[in-house]
Amino acid sequence: MEGKANIQDVAKRANVSIATVSRVINNQGGVRKQTEERILKAIQELGYIRNAAARTMKSKDTKTIGVIVPDINNPFFPSVMAGIEQKAREKGYFAILSSTNESPVVEQEILKNFIERGVDGVIITTANENGDHLKQVLEQGIPMVAVDRSIQYYDVDTVLVDNVKGSYQAVQHMILQGHEKIAIICGPQNTTPGRERFIGYKKALEDYNLKLDERYIFQGDFGERSGYQGAHQLYSLEDRPTAIFSSNNLMTIGCVKAIGDLDWKLGEEISFFGFDDVDIATFINPKLSVVSRPMHALGELAFQLLHERIQFKDPVPKREYKLSPELIIRESCRLRYPKSSPDGQSLKK
User: Fold this and answer.
1) Are 196 and 163 in contact (CB under 8 A)?
2) What is the pLDDT of residue 339?
3) Residue 150: which of 109, 192, 186, 120 has the closest Cα?
4) Is 333 exposed, middle or buried (0-12, 13-18, 19+ CB in 10 A)?
5) pTM for this model (two decimals)
């Protein structure tokens, strides 16, 4: 019964009136301590979430949506949020933003709060893709859209970028520039972007008959510190890579900082390509080559799908969209010598 109990169920379990339960959950006082404890015990046993019943009975939407991101410090998410907010305002909706710091426990607490507030829908980049902790929201019939990361085991509309394509093209570019010792600073493999970007990296090496060298694979966590540590580890190798592919923007920042601290000449001794454009990309010398994502468009599409789910209650099959990334070639990946592509054509013209 967890997640589906209503106020009547709580009243019945505690052997009190609905009005008494209401006084307790709304902190109105006037209830004996023993009775209050009995009601709270019933709430816990039944998994009752305040306002769940009211939500199904209300005649009007709250015009509020909840947005959950794993790391508000990542510049990607504010850009996505800007797209969500623009479309939300056009439809008269207000968006509440919360960050989990990659904690499924915090995420669950936020979701419970959203339910209590009676949000009309949720847009989420989850900290745990298996989706078990999302059950409480989905069982309430609250529409949900996933952005950037998929949700397993549940039919949830999803908006992604083509991570495999983006990382493949970046690594391909470095290969065609003559690089064979290409390292990668990976994101977590239990996330869609971390996993798919590593797949694109491996596929590019395979297509160009280059060996996957474990020495050149550093497992990061999408944080700036891990990018810094990755660059240090790669620099310490006796046989250093000639190029690095960083799997996200924060790791790019950390990696570039480390390259500078190590006096590892960017664009000369070490070439570089990052996933996601960052502010520093055009401020440093040489300017960074990156895979750019349509962040604003991701947010706009996410809200569009959510709004459709809110407006049209009839169930429709899960929808998944993959937007195309764009390769932005700047100055951080130097030409060693031109290499032929699989079809025999050289990059050099």
Assistant:
1) yes
2) 62
3) 192
4) buried
5) 0.80
Pairing of strands 217-219, 243-246: unpaired
SS3 label, residue 214: helix
The answer to whether 262 and 231 have CB atoms below 8 angstroms apart is yes
Helix ranges, 47-189 (H): 52-57, 76-90, 104-117, 135-138, 163-176
307: helix, strand or coil: helix
- Is residue 312 within 8 A of residue 142, CB to CB? The reply is no
Residues 6 or more apart in contact with residue 11 via CB below 8 angstroms: 17, 18, 20, 21
Summarised one tens digit per residue, pLDDT across range 243-270 is 999 999 999 999 999 999 999 999 999 9
**Cα–Cα distance, 136 to 133 (Å, whole number):** 7
Cβ neighbours of 257 (radius 10 Å) = 15
Do 20 and 136 fall within a single domain? no
Length of the chain, in residues: 349
How far is the CA of 131 from the CAs of 7, 136, 176, in angstroms? 26, 10, 40
- State the pLDDT confidence band at 141, using cuts at 50, 70 and 90: confident
Containing domain of residue 216, as a range?
Answer: 163-293
Please, what sign has the CA dihedral across residues 19, 21, 26, 28? positive
What is the rounded average pLDDT for all residues in the chain?
Answer: 89
Same domain, 32 and 124: no
Reading the block at residue 16, the tokens are 């009190």
> Where residue 74 sits, what CATH number does that domain have?
3.40.50.2300
87-98 pLDDT, tens digit per residue, is 999 999 999 999
**Residue 344 one-letter amino acid:** G
CA distance linking residue 75 with residue 102, whole number of Å: 15
The pair phi, psi for residue 145, each rounded to 5°, is -130, 135
Q: Which of 26-35, 61-70, 116-125 has the lowest mean pLDDT?
A: 26-35
Do 193 and 265 have their domain in common? yes
